Amino acid sequence: MGSLNPTLLRGISLLRLHHQRLSFGFAAAAPSRRACCTQSQESSSSSAEKSTVLRVKEGPKYPRWEDPDYCKWKDKEGEILRDVEPIVTLAKEILHSDTYMDGERLSSEDEKIVKERLLAYHPHSDDKIGCGIDSIMVRCVDRHPQFKQSRCLFVIRTNGAWIDFSYQKCLRAYIRYKYPTHAERFVREHFKRGSG
User: Fold this and answer.
1) Is the separation of the CB atoms in 114 and 153 below 8 Å?
2) What contacts 129, CB < 8 A, 6 or more positions away?
3) Residue 95 and residue 136 in contact, taking contact as beta carbons nearer than 8 Å
4) Which of 60, 74, 91, 145 is deepest in the core (most CB within 10 A)?
């Protein structure tokens, strides 16, 4: 994801200001957080009434976009997002759509992707795999104190035992492995707090 042009960003702010004016039916809109506005007083020719008119003094400044380190971060952030988006999309589809019913095993294609792109990076993957993987399934759990009726991925071991694993923990570990210098910032900005 390349950096955005500051001129384009100014235009977006002005469009937002224009949209506010149209959607609220006001002749003069409230100033946008980003637009630098000044108030000028104009007198009506028929009376001494004064009305407030807003003018854009000058475009907003985006010093962060001029910072080369910030631009490098945004480029790396885009690279990480492009890298993990397909597996995030697949995991969410598996867990939150009707593709798989409760207790159903993943297709061989989905299972292969989940094993290689997620489970292999889990911080405790050896413990999760145990004696070996027979398959991976989706199952609704009701024993978690916070997330009643949430669907989870489970490893079914060759001995018949099964254990759940968090695809988000796998993703965080993958990002830390592949992008060590940018991982903590990415995880902090893109993952929920307290999710490991």
Assistant:
1) yes
2) 119, 155, 157
3) no
4) 91
